[in-house]
């Protein structure tokens, strides 16, 4: 039995005098394939064992009452009149409710708790959207499947949060499987699972504990630059629908000036999509040193070409690179803060964390958090 689910159920019952159903949805890592999802490329995410929990009980009237255990805040709404609030955590929930609202007519009480670090690039917001969508869908028997719920989560980001994100995060949260990585084709949403076997190595997350404020506007800018790249490619290659369809050679002919931003951003994406397939092969072959090299290559691209890194992330990757016990490191997620993902020899993890934490704190005056990654499972009814 999941202790956190019990805790959420107890708090919900005390506050609302109703025994809830409890659902949970995980955060995610992404081994490789960054900023490829909205370009119809491939990604390689996996659910982690950190979750957002939702306790929910139906009401007979039309009131919606939301309580966040993390923030100790309560927010009210009605089914018919859902408006965005000052509390950002509530907006992820209300956005989902608004998108689902035409299909249900009763209100509910909801209690939310999460142990996915917020702003760490581990998709705490997608975990919340996925948990809420799944929970409302289940208690009102709305009939959506996981694929549709992932798309609803993505729409919530687009319409109510203002981030034109891809589908990776919500998809990974809803479809995660214990100890499995998924290769997702973001064009047609075909996906397959394979076990993550790292032998003497493990993935370690180092959380910079910074989250720079330009993240969502810069994210949307990158997406627009990719769209410009596609439009330029289409002038010469009308069959191109997305950067997924292009090669570097095609880009060279379509955008002759390699200093144009659309060229630089598009080239990164084209190369990153190729890295995903290579990493899949290397993981199958157990060639972890080659996986690590490509992680470093991704970081370099995200830093220099895509320009979504920041000094704290770069420092961590540069610091780690000195150690032969670390095969690869890179920033993960949208960028401008959050975590680096590191492939580290198990016997060296404790020593590495001690050293890098000291060095990071003395330079930036910020405590570093670290987690050895354990994979988790996708959205589920847990109580
Ligand atoms: C964020 C987005 F939400 C994802 O869709 C993806 O684009 C990612 O950044 C970058 O790979 O997590």
From TrEMBL:
Residues annotated as domain Galactokinase N-terminal: 12-58
GO MF: galactokinase activity
Gene3D superfamilies cross-referenced by the UniProt entry: 3.30.230.10, GHMP kinase, C-terminal domain
Span of domain GHMP kinase N-terminal: 91-176
Alphabetically ordered keywords of this record: ATP-binding, Carbohydrate metabolism, Galactose metabolism, Kinase, Nucleotide-binding, Transferase
InterPro entries: Galactokinase, Galactokinase_CS, GalKase_N, GHMP_kinase_C_dom, GHMP_kinase_C_sf, GHMP_kinase_N_dom, GHMP_knse_ATP-bd_CS, Mevalonate/galactokinase
Enzyme Commission number, as recorded: 2.7.1.6
Domain GHMP kinase C-terminal per the UniProt entry, residue ranges: 283-361
Stored PROSITE patterns: GALACTOKINASE (PS00106), GHMP_KINASES_ATP (PS00627)
Enzyme class label: transferase
Family: Belongs to the GHMP kinase family. GalK subfamily.
Protein name from the UniProt record: Galactokinase
Species the sequence originates in: Sphingobacterium tabacisoli
High-level lineage: Bacteria, Pseudomonadati, Bacteroidota, Sphingobacteriia, Sphingobacteriales
Gene responsible for this protein: galK
């Amino acid at each position: 039995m999941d202790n956190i689910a019990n805790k959420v159920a107890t708090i919900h019952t005390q506050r609302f005098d109703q025994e809830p159903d409890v659902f949970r949805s995980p955060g995610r890592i992404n081994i490789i394939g960054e900023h490829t999802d909205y370009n119809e490329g491939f990604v390689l995410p996996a659910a982690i064992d950190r979750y957002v929990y939702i306790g929910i009980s139906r009401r007979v009237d039309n009131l919606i009452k939301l309580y966040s255990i993390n923030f100790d805040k309560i927010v009210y709404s009605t089914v018919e009149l859902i408006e965005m609030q000052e509390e950002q955590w509530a907006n992820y929930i209300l956005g989902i409710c608004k998108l689902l609202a035409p299909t249900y007519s009763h209100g509910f009480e909801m209690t939310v708790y999460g142990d996915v670090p917020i702003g760490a690039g581990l998709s705490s917001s997608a975990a919340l959207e996925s948990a809420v969508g799944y929970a409302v869908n289940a208690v009102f028997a709305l009939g959506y499947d996981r694929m549709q719920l992932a798309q609803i989560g993505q729409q919530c980001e687009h319409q109510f949060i203002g981030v034109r994100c891809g589908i990776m995060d919500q998809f990974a949260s809803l479809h995660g499987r214990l100890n499995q990585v998924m290769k997702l084709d973001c064009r047609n949403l075909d996906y397959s699972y394979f076990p993550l076997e790292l032998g003497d190595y493990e993935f370690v997350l180092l959380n910079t504990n910074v989250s720079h404020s330009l993240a969502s506007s810069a994210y949307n800018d990158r997406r627009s630059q990719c769209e410009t790249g596609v439009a330029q490619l289409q002038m010469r290659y009308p069959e191109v629908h997305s950067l997924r369809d292009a090669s570097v050679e095609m880009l060279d002919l379509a955008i002759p000036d390699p200093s144009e931003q659309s060229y630089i951003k598009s080239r990164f994406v084209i190369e990153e999509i190729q890295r995903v397939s290579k990493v899949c092969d290397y993981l199958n072959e157990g060639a972890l040193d080659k996986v690590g090299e490509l992680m470093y290559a991704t970081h370099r691209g995200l830093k220099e070409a895509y320009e979504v890194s920041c000094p704290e992330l770069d420092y961590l990757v540069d610091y780690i690179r000195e150690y032969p016990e670390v095969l690869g490191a890179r920033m993960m997620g949208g960028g401008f803060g959050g975590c680096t993902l590191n492939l580290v020899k198990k016997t060296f993890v404790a020593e590495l964390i001690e050293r890098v934490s000291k060095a990071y704190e003395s330079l930036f005056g910020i405590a570093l958090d670290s987690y050895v990654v354990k994979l988790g499972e996708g959205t589920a009814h847990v109580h």
